[in-house]
Design a protein that fits this description.
elongated; four-stranded parallel sheet; six-stranded parallel sheet; mainly beta; 16 strands
Length: 231
């Protein structure tokens, strides 16, 4: 997927807000794979978004970033506002979460690995990442917000960690290629009738922990997944 003609950049941030000191104007639109270690604030996220195809002001960019590895990174409060929303602009207010609209409309992204210490994925975080085909959600995440992965048309497989207890409205709506769903929690996470709106639920292969299928089949929202198997 990432062969000839692709450029990889590995960076360590000594302080949040310093990514633009490491990645020059000349190379920010050439990088296709980015690995970050360290603390990321709004200023850093603003640049990453631009590298991935969408600016803070709501316009397409020339960015080519396809793969983003944040396994050893961490989102922290502070920095610039990084994305537009209905009533203004978004800023990072809390640590250890993927903030609201963090990568919304960053349609160049194909592969994302989230920070290991992440606790929440806020609403609209990856909405309309239309080429996103792989997302690594770490153990420890407890909440995935509304429309977080809405219209991620290329997502075929998703693994939900055992720590997730709640997923919001339309979280995975209109993800038309979704075919396999791994839910690792023994107790079914809270979902809504429209969490998977526009997805052919009856055709999805749902995998749950050994011995947990009977509980899932008794839950109104989960029993709609008729193709259920135990891991």
């Amino acid at each position: 997927m990432f062969g000839i003609g692709n450029k990889k950049k590995v960076v360590t941030l000594e302080a949040p807000g310093t990514l633009n000191n490491i990645i020059s104007e000349d190379e920010k639109f050439a990088i296709t794979e980015l690995v970050i270690t360290g603390e990321i604030n709004g200023t850093d996220l603003k640049l990453i978004r631009e590298m991935a195809g969408y600016t803070a002001s709501g316009r397409n960019s020339e960015g080519k970033l396809k793969r983003l590895d944040l396994k050893n990174a961490r989102f922290v409060p502070g920095g610039e506002k990084y994305a537009r929303k209905n009533d203004g602009y978004c800023s990072i207010e809390e640590a250890d979460l993927v903030p609201q609209r963090a990568f919304r409309k960053c349609d160049k992204l194909q592969v994302v690995i989230l920070p290991e210490g992440t606790k929440k994925i806020e609403g609209h975080a990856f909405e309309r990442c239309t080429h996103l085909s792989s997302i690594t959600i770490p153990e420890g995440v407890e909440y995935i917000g509304s429309r977080a992965f809405r219209k991620c048309y290329e997502l075929k497989t998703i693994s939900i960690p055992s720590t997730v207890v709640d997923m919001g409205k339309e979280t995975f709506s209109e993800d038309g290629k979704l075919g396999k769903l791994y839910v690792l929690a023994e107790k079914p996470p809270m979902i809504y009738v429209n969490t998977f709106f526009g997805v052919a639920i009856s055709e999805i292969k749902l995998y749950v922990p050994t011995g947990a299928s009977s509980v899932y089949k008794k839950t109104i929202t989960w029993k709609r997944f008729r193709n259920m198997k135990e891991l």
